[in-house]
Amino acid sequence: MAASHSVTPGRWSAMLDELMARIAGRFARVEPRRRAAAFVAGLLSELPRKNCWTLAEHAGDLTPDGMQHLLARARWDADAVRDDIRDYVVEQLGEADVVLVIDETGDLKKGNATVAVQRQYTGTAGRIENSQVGVFLTYVTAAGHALIDRELYLPESWSGDQVRRERAKVPAERRFATKPELAAQMIGRALATGIRGWVTGDEVYGSSTPLRTVLETGQVSYAMAVASNHRITTAAGTRRADEIAARLPKTAWQRLSVGAGAKGQRYYDWALITIASEQPGRRWLLIRRHHRTGELAFYRCYAPGPVPLPVLVKVAGTRWRIEESFQTGNGLTGLDQHQVRTWTSWYRWTTLVLLAHAFLAAVTARERSDHNAQPDLVPMTLPEAQRLFTRLTSGPIRSIAFVLHWSRWRRRHQARARASHYHRQAALQS
């Protein structure tokens, strides 16, 4: 029976030990370094709720004081750990066909004392709510994806309020910056390390002329969403994006998939329009049309040279990966579960969450690479990796065979469901 085990808990534990050793030098003393390891172990656990209290209990502490000290007052460099995380993700996921995805996510909050909280729009709620917004950067390759950078959006209402700034310990040098400006900072840090690839994001970033200019000046290719009323200049003049789409003949559209989904290939109709410009490089308006509902989406694209349509389609279709990163970051490693109030604590909590999330992404990528010829199983996922890691490496378990039996049962059931969806899709298209 043991010979059939495809998962080796000892290797996963060794990978985590190596990752924690990698960041050990970022801590001034051994105590916070050990506390950080216990903190990350708690983030990787299946605790239903993750905050300093639950993480302290998981670590065997009698009070949450030690975990709170780690976030607020202990001496360690969260930005240096962030850089270690980015390098680790690049090593684990590879450097081929890289896409950097930028987006923000909001955490709903009460009151106005928590750093950077105000009434503002957040996609989490889909409306204006009292919330705190962070901007994040995800690194995507064919092997997987993981969050590699973060910045807290400090609204203008906070930027000039000295009393609240001091209470929340906002650094004196930090001033108001728009979300696209924060995105440019994070992308710049990634590029400075030698990362090369495409950039994509939603309308907040695609509509930002300064951000597009920064990318084009650095000859960084992008395919970012824009609104239907975004104005585009072509050889025929300047018009709204939706007006251009309405004038296109049937022959302008091609049906292409943006990739495999849980229920089949994700097909859309696509059209590509050249944008007129006297600046170096190539620019396009990419239009996506849902082949059943007719719903349209628009992307402004740039590259230093010619690019085939399928490449632009693939990049545009990669943007949803950051939504997956937010879902797994929130659901698995507690990205949105913090109960911190200060600037330093937010950055430290978020950085350790990114570390835990990067570890799960690395484990998942490793298992997919080692066991990619199992047609009766869906590939390893981050939730499954967390479940196995927790049950095989911490606390009493029934047996390795029992845990792996349930893992294979779940994945086989998912594989059958996916195959059924694909067969149904093929039958409908035939």
Automatic annotation (TrEMBL):
Domain Transposase IS701-like DDE: 28-234
One Pfam family named in its UniProt record: DDE_5
Matching InterPro entries: IS701-like (IPR039365), IS701-like_DDE_dom (IPR038721), RNaseH-like_sf (IPR012337)
PANTHER family: TRANSPOSASE
Protein name: SRSO17 transposase
Organism listed in the record: Nonomuraea polychroma
